[in-house]
Specification:
The complex is a heterodimer. Chain A is built from 11 helices and 2 strands; from the N terminus they run ααααββααααααα. By secondary structure, chain A is mainly α. Chain B has 10 helices and 10 strands. In chain B, α2 runs parallel beside α6 and α6 packs parallel to α7. The chains are: A mainly alpha, B alpha/beta.
């Protein structure tokens, strides 16, 4: 009994690390730029395809391809902010919603056209390896993904709390006008926020590749969970999104264990509805930290 | 040093100030007085670039400021302490001060300036790790002024620093502003508390419905019958 629960918790925690990378990106963009990026999942998908092709064509380990996916997606984020999002920022939310939604559909359909709907997998030497600790089964690829995800989250936290640019980002998320009075260029900060958010999504893609299949719709799985985590963790709160993602991973995994294999998300969405009903500001409290 | 000539600005189609001309010399303390809605804050926002001018010019030592986006204005040594304090609530006192010296020139002197600001406001030094949003109104006002000082400004613009403060805290705030002025910083003070402001500044402009209706030395204005009747309750 105890072991089944512990195993489910571990499984959930490990996948929760991936949810965290995606949801931190969404919440960072929301907190700083004040837009909802519906296309965040597609950037996970792009990260996966980049890793897939690097592995397939050049035999590069998906984990090493992090060093390609993250910079490529960072630049993509900067360009998307500078050339697209910047033009629709204004008092009206609708153009922003349509822009990121259209971007999501565009990328999805581009992937369908270029790569077909086939599932692509990469088999690494550690894909089937696992640690056995006291009767518990810990898949190596998932453990690596979790550890790297936590390390990247930690780096982001350090960036936001110890560098001037990071502090400028937090300042801009808390009061944009006064941030400008401090000499902070909002567009520059927004570009960096988009860049970081997309780099994290790309990292999620690379980390997933050793144990998950790439296909054009794969982003949808993660973006849905990310949105729930962002709401649970209080919009714009990075720490909140991280903790909520881990909690949701665990809730989903326990749901799979005790409700049914296809029903893990029932528990997650029940959590979302209960939170919205009883604590609509989310469990994180406060704002962009 | 700073010169506004016939500046007009509006929010949408609602004019907020029209043909405002004011001037501040190096190291001078100047007041911008008037009732609520007279256009005092808008004048500061026009200098900071937060509202676009519909006509007129803002120049610093002859250099046109209005062609710069708002985030460029601090580079000219103009610090704006906004109305209602507006500290960054989820950042610590120390972080708020650090971000006050975000522009490269101020950043180079950050360490010394922090010492200076903590010297002027010992309360901030005690609270340096506290989240700004959890402090009292008076403490937040000190932080907002300190954050402005972190720029090592030539001109410190203060928008209603006494707003919502207890009389004791207002005393402290004005005393500190006086100290900062004595250090050689020019002050542009927006205040509804006219008698208080006149005791601090050397000259003042009186605004009404977006127009400058009067200006002169503080003592002169304090003795002016119209000012006394309208703003000093005498």
């Amino acid at each position: 009994m105890f072991e089944t629960v512990a195993q489910a918790v571990i499984n959930g925690l490990l996948i929760g690390g991936i949810y965290a990378l995606v949801s931190i990106g969404v919440t960072l963009i929301f907190g700083v730029v004040k837009i909802v990026n519906f296309a965040q999942g597609e950037f996970v998908m792009i990260g996966m395809y980049i890793s897939f092709f690097l592995a397939n064509q050049y035999g590069i380990d998906p984990l090493l391809s992090l060093f390609v996916t993250m910079p490529v997606l960072f630049v993509m984020g900067v360009l998307i902010q500078h050339f697209l999002i910047r033009r629709v920022l204004g008092p009206n939310d609708m153009p922003q919603i349509f822009l990121t939604f259209a971007l999501s559909l565009l990328l999805l359909n581009l992937a369908l056209m270029l790569f077909s709907a086939n599932y692509r997998t990469v088999h690494t030497s550690y894909s089937d390896e696992a640690f056995h600790v006291g009767g518990l089964y810990i898949p190596e690829a998932k453990l690596i993904a979790f550890v790297v995800a936590m390390a990247l989250s930690g780096l982001l936290w350090l960036f936001l709390h110890t560098t001037d640019l990071g502090k400028a980002m937090r300042a801009a998320s808390q009061n944009r006008d006064v941030a400008m009075l401090m000499g902070i260029n909002p567009n520059r900060v927004f570009c960096v926020a988009l860049g970081i958010a997309l780099a994290l999504a790309g990292a999620a893609g690379s980390l997933l590749m050793p144990f998950y299949s790439a296909y054009p719709f794969v982003g949808q799985v993660f973006v849905l969970m990310a949105f729930v985590a962002v709401v649970l963790g209080t919009l714009g709160n990075v720490m909140g999104a991280l903790i909520a993602s881990l909690m949701m991973g665990i809730a989903e995994s326990l749901g799979i264990q005790y409700v049914g294999a296809d029903s893990g998300q029932i528990v997650v969405f029940a959590m979302l509805l209960l939170t919205l009903a009883f604590k609509p500001t989310g469990l994180g409290g406060g704002r962009a930290r | 040093m700073l010169k506004l000539e016939n500046v007009s600005a509006s929010y949408g189609s609602v004019p907020a100030i029209s043909n405002v001309s004011i001037e501040i010399a190096e190291g001078e303390a100047v007041g911008l007085l008037g009732a609520n809605g007279a256009g005092k804050s808008t004048t500061l926002r026009a200098i900071s670039g937060l509202v676009k001018l519909t006509s007129g010019t803002v120049t610093l030592d002859g250099v046109n400021l209005a062609s710069n986006p708002p985030h460029r204005i601090p580079e000219f040594g103009i610090a704006h302490v906004p109305e209602g304090r507006q500290v960054f609530p989820e950042m610590t006192v120390h972080e708020n001060l650090e971000i006050g010296s975000y522009v490269p020139k101020a950043k180079a002197e950050r360490r010394q300036t922090l010492e200076l600001v903590y010297g002027i406001f010992p309360r901030l030094a005690e609270r340096r790790k506290q989240l700004a949003g959890t402090m009292s109104g008076g403490e937040q006002q000190m932080l907002a002024v300190g954050r402005g000082l972190m720029l090592r400004p030539r001109l410190l613009m203060l928008d209603e620093p006494s707003l919502g403060l207890a009389p004791v805290m207002t005393d402290v705030t004005f005393e500190k502003i006086g100290e900062i002025h004595k250090m050689g910083t020019a002050i542009l003070l927006v205040e509804q508390n006219v008698s208080r402001a006149l005791s601090l500044v050397q000259r003042a402009y009186v605004l009404e419905s977006g127009n400058v209706i009067m200006s002169g030395a503080s003592a002169e204005l304090a003795n002016n019958k119209q000012v006394q009747a309208a703003y000093l309750g005498i």
